[in-house]
Amino acid sequence: MHSIQGMSVRTRYPRRLSARLGAGLVGALLAGALLARAPLAGATDAAEGSQPVDSIERAARMVAVAQAGAGDPATVEVHALDPRLRFAACQRPLEGSLAPGLHVGARLTVEVRCDEPRWRVYLGVTLHTVEHVVVATRPLSRATVLGPDDLGVVERELGALPGGFYRRPEELYGTLTSRMVGTGEILTPALIDVPPVIRRGQQVTVIARHGALEVRQAGVALADAGLAQRVRVQTVAGPAGRPIEAVVRAPDLVEVALP
């Protein structure tokens, strides 16, 4: 409706045109609202200045390197921020930490935040970390007793490694392969059988240590077990009680962990 010299004149548009005009108006209003809120390049407050994006990425990189710990991060890949984003210049040093939640393998999410003025942003980071792993140096048949000639050490990227692996060949000397293993294949716990050094019914010495205190007593193994494996033992001295769990330390010696 328009007003012309005190008269009200109603302008009629076709229904389709009215719908298009309405949709266009709503779209324009929404676009304007989003642009007003989004921290894009054209919305930078020149008076306050903006935080350099590379400083935010550096903060995320430092968190990732610290997370790698004793590993050897060959490269740390920080996923780039949207170049249109702008953050108010931080008046204090940026702080960073791992974001809460699940972190899968070498893929991390890092939170970088500013306390004055308050803002935070999350960046994805990938650690390309090199580990030394034990592999087979030749084809190995099932039940092969492993020795120095069967094993070698190579470098592999951590993110591509299986869930379990060995770093030192000596850990596997005397163990058995549980199936055929190909040349260059990474040795994992699933491929290894530990030969028993204690048999069910065998008499063993049970040792318990707490600081400088050491107690020994006789016991009987209730199952077969290899070195460093857990085994249930029934103690002999005193009244028969519940079996205890111990770790095999030698062919006739098991150790009980005390709190």
In words, what does this structure look like?
- With 259 residues, the protein is α+β, with helices and mostly antiparallel strands.
- The chain has 3 domains: 53-129, no CATH class; 130-193, Antifreeze-like/N-acetylneuraminic acid synthase C-terminal domain (Type Iii Antifreeze Protein Isoform Hplc 12), CATH 3.90.1210.10; 203-256, SH3 type barrels (Roll), CATH 2.30.30.
- The chain has helices spanning 15-37, 53-68; strands at 2-4, 7-9, 72-78, 95-98, 107-115, 118-136, 151-157, 176-177, 192-193, 203-210, 213-221, 230-235, 244-250, 253-256.
- Mean pLDDT is 79; it is low at 1-47.
- β5 and β6 (118-136) form a beta hairpin.
- Strands 3, 4, 5, 6 and 7 form a 5-stranded antiparallel β-sheet that branches.
- The protein contains 2 helices and 14 strands, in the order ββααββββββββββββ.
